[in-house]
Design a protein that fits this description.
There is one protein chain. The chain is built from 3 helices and 6 strands, in the order αααββββββ. With 113 residues, it is of the alpha+beta class. The protein has a domain at 45-109: SH3 type barrels (Roll), CATH 2.30.30. The strands form 2 sheets. Strands 2-1-6 form a 3-stranded antiparallel beta sheet. It has a 3-stranded antiparallel beta sheet with strand order 3-4-5, with helices on one face. Strand 3 (82-86) and strand 4 (91-94) form a beta hairpin. 10% of the residues are buried. The mean pLDDT is 85.
Length: 113
């Protein structure tokens, strides 16, 4: 004597529908990525002043620095020498690339030994 399982009992409904549409897979990945997103921290005046001082020193002394930039999904670091400072547009150029001051979370001078 064989027993028949009802489709809706236990996990039967999901066991019978294992196929997912590509749109669903994309949305699940987007949701997972968005749930891991970080919020941008607000820097206090002392931290902003330290960042500006280190950037200015790199520009005048031609010394390399590491800039820590904000990104919602990963940690970004830029290493190089500050070529230009644009105070009007609030941005700095490091090795030929422009970066907005508002996106800089930290700056560290690189000590050469």
């Amino acid at each position: 004597m064989t027993t028949q399982r009802k489709k809706l009992s236990g996990n039967g409904l999901w066991e019978s529908s294992r196929m997912m549409l590509p749109e669903h897979i994309v949305r699940i990945k987007e949701h997972s990525r968005e749930s891991n997103a970080k919020e941008k921290p607000i820097l206090d005046a002392d931290a902003v002043e330290d960042i500006e001082r280190i950037i200015s020193a790199s520009h005048t002394e031609r010394t390399p620095i590491t800039l820590r930039l904000f990104d919602r999904f990963e940690d970004l670091n830029v290493i190089g020498v500050v070529d230009r400072i644009d105070t009007h547009k609030q941005r700095v150029m490091v090795d030929g690339d422009w970066f907005q001051m508002a996106e800089i979370l930290g700056a560290t001078p690189i000590r050469e030994e």
